[in-house]
Specification:
The structure holds 2 protein chains of 2 kinds. By secondary structure, chain A is an alpha/beta fold. Chain A has 14 helices and 23 strands. In chain A, α2 (50-61) packs across α14 (426-444). Chain B is mainly beta. Chain B has helices at residues 3-15, 35-47, 193-197; strands spanning 22-33, 60-69, 76-93, 96-114, 122-139, 142-143, 145-146, 149-150, 152-166, 168-171, 174-189, 208-223. The relative contact order of chain B is 0.19. Classes of the chains: A alpha/beta, B mainly beta.
Chain lengths: 446, 235
């Protein structure tokens, strides 16, 4: 072979040898999952919270038949809105987007939704005075190799005296937990996969409305409200979901997005029973009481964010990022403090207890400028019964086990089932929702 | 140190390497395949139906490399190789122009083989190198930042490449050679990749990946003028 010939051949083989396989490989490499999926079955999603709505939103985008069955009379789960109380729409449930490196930030950015970075300076009610710094930094729960003891016990071990109790309670309250129940070790393990960022964002309109408009709206006709599910029979090919009206709904796959509190209480019966390791895993979760109380005042006498009340761990200015001239203070009450307020039995008693504490902190200004309040007690909501799931002592891999599908028929989603560090958040619930869809489509591959 | 600076510094170090017998500069098209990274981008696209234009897979890029051959045996030569590759994936949606920029720098040992008696003008090379990668996300033309830091994932691993080419003489001691190359990175530890692309960690992928590559390109050679150099069989 002479040189000219060799060049001709080598050029031909080079281009053919590389580009043809590359082109073939490229054509095999799809840009999305299940591009050629042919799932002809139907799906029932139980629960119309963020996880259930997003699972439905994904299924609709893939052209898969589904129905969402919701026990209560509204969508959103632990999200909701209150109009008319102030001159802006209040988020009665989740209201912060925690971090911006997450799927919901992508959504709001693409939809041009207005947000504000919450840069509230944190103050503390400490030794009967308001301070902006503490003698010891109480944010000690993100270190590595923490012991598997409660936040409270760990703070004690680190030499934080009783004067820090309410501050530690407020920090645990951020996780929806009592400081005496939240595991320092397992909570820090959960945090290892947190990649969303530490900045909190608030929405100019409500968070609920954003989810409602961009995720729920396209699938509203697929949602059945006021339909609590009583039992799920997955003993045969078709799964039978029976509601309290004794109506049976048939499905090939079921995505269960109800709160972990409801699963722990076995309020839905399963046939056959769920595997024991599953129910044991549910039992290991904590889900404590939670309450949000909105207090409207004629003047803003309070700090933007204050930790350390004995009745309420965290008081937060609710109007940040809103177009409003009203003064609304949010009492964010979790764990033992929420249990105490819940035990008072009435919204008036709860409001009075909070005003009494605010009067103590702000020298009587609360009562004199008080206009109105609204209490949202998630503990008393029959289909929620708490704030959000948290990791208790000896939690182990309960979250991973709880999130596992059963028999390639039942799939679990919701904030507590997020196994990638984003539990207790709306974006974490959304991730668990799309992940449940991915799991069942993978299982449905022939 | 920025990638450009590192590359510049490496060039400078190499340019003063007196013992060099041959300098080679490559420019090539590079095709890359990582199953893990595909899965992450596919999940990103699957989970975001609100973005009408999908994020393309990281697939095609450009590579440039510089090699110095130090020793001159009959058929085998040894040298070092420094290479840089760049890949980009961009999807322009309304209000949301998301792009991923992936960089690789490899530094490795090169074994060059040619046997003009058997294969006139043909050579092959085996390159074993350490590889480092950097993945960055841009949103609407700006580096995507959260908590006041750029969204980024760095990686480190090992790579092996096999390259075949053919010399075309240009002038005295300078050659141009078209080449083909295949490469394999069995292990690239890059634990933050999923966090940059899909904004999750531990949901889709492992914290490392294997990568397959192919390349087609041209090499420009300059040879030191000495009498003891074997010709390439094409003089």
């Amino acid at each position: 072979m002479d040189r000219r010939e060799f060049i001709k051949h080598s050029t031909f083989f080079s281009i053919g040898g590389l580009l043809i396989p590359s082109a073939l490989l490229s054509s095999c490499r799809k840009e999305t999952l299940f591009e050629d999926i042919n799932f002809g079955g139907n799906v029932i999603i139980i629960g119309a919270g963020a996880a259930g709505l997003y699972a439905g939103y994904i299924l609709k985008s893939k052209g898969i038949d589904f129905k969402i069955i919701e026990a209560s009379n509204n969508i959103g789960g632990r999200m909701g809105k209150l109009a008319g109380f102030a001159d802006y729409t209040i988020d009665t449930g989740a209201q912060w987007l925690h971090g911006k490196n997450n799927i919901l930030f992508d959504l709001i950015k693409s939809k041009n939704v207005k947000t504000t970075l919450d840069e509230s300076e944190l103050s503390y009610w400490f030794n009967n005075q308001i301070v902006t710094s503490l003698p010891k930094d109480p944010f000690i729960f993100e270190e590595e190799n923490l012991p598997d003891v409660s936040f409270k016990d760990y703070a004690d071990q680190k030499g934080f005296g009783n004067e820090y109790d309410n501050i530690v309670e407020a920090i645990a309250g951020d996780q929806g937990a009592s400081a005496s129940l939240l595991s320092a070790y397992w909570n820090s393990k959960d945090e290892e996969n947190w990649v969303s960022g530490d900045e909190d964002y608030k929405f100019q309109k409500s968070y609920f409305e954003v989810i409602e408009e961009h995720i729920a709206q396209p699938i509203l006709n697929k949602i059945v409200l006021n339909t609590p599910v009583q039992s799920i029979d997955y003993s045969s090919d078709k799964i039978i979901v029976r509601d309290v009206n004794n109506v049976s709904h048939l499905a090939d796959k079921v995505i269960i997005t109800i709160p972990i509190s409801i699963l722990k209480l076995n309020e839905i019966s399963f046939n056959p029973s769920l595997p024991p390791e599953k129910t044991e895993a549910f039992a290991k979760f904590g889900m404590g009481p939670g309450m949000k109380v909105f207090l409207k005042f004629s003047s803003k006498f309070y700090a933007d964010a204050l930790y350390g009340g004995s009745i309420c761990g965290a008081y937060v200015n609710d109007t940040l990022g809103k177009l409003t001239s009203d003064n609304v203070l949010l009492a964010f009450v979790m764990g033992d403090q929420a249990a105490y307020l819940h035990s008072l039995g009435s919204d008036t008693a709860i409001t009075n207890a909070l005003l009494q504490e605010l009067d103590l902190i702000y020298s009587g200004q609360a009562t004199t400028s008080f206009i109105a309040s609204r209490v949202f007690d998630y503990t008393s909501k029959p289909f929620i019964k708490g704030a959000y799931g948290f990791s208790t002592i000896n939690m182990g891999n309960a979250r991973e086990i709880a999130a596992l599908p059963v028999d390639k028929k039942l799939y679990f989603a919701g904030e507590a089932m997020n196994t990638n560090g984003h539990h207790q958040t709306v974006h974490g619930a959304v991730e668990s929702g799309y992940n449940a869809v991915i799991k069942f489509l993978n299982d449905s591959k022939k | 140190m920025s990638l450009k600076r590192l590359y510049g510094l490496s060039l400078l170090i190499l340019s003063i390497s007196a013992p060099a017998q041959e300098l080679k500069l490559d420019l090539s098209y590079k095709y890359i395949y990582s199953n893990q990274w595909d899965k992450i981008i596919q999940t990103y696209n699957f989970s975001r139906p609100f973005l009408t234009k999908m994020q393309p897979l990281l697939m095609s890029g450009l590579n440039t490399s510089l090699s110095y051959i130090f020793k001159n045996e009959k058929h085998f030569k040894h040298g070092i190789n420094l290479s840089y590759s760049y890949f980009r994936s961009s999807a322009e949606n309304e209000n949301f122009n998301n792009s991923l920029n992936l960089h690789f720098i490899n530094l490795g040992y090169l074994l060059h083989y040619e046997n003009p008696d058997k294969w006139k003008g043909v050579y092959s090379e085996l390159i074993v190198s350490a590889t480092s990668s950097g993945l960055f996300r841009n949103l609407n033309g700006e580096p995507f930042e959260y908590d006041e830091t750029k969204s980024k994932a760095f990686g480190i691993g090992g790579d092996i490449h096999l390259k075949c080419g053919y010399y075309l003489k240009l002038k005295n001691n300078s050659y141009l050679s078209p080449f083909l190359s295949i490469g394999y990175t069995p292990y690239l530890y890059s634990p933050n990749t999923e966090a940059v692309i899909n904004q999750t960690k531990g949901l889709i992928s492992k914290n490392w990946t294997g990568i397959l590559t192919t390349q087609i390109g041209l090499t420009f050679h300059i040879e030191k003028q000495t009498n003891d150099l074997p010709n390439k069989g094409i003089r």
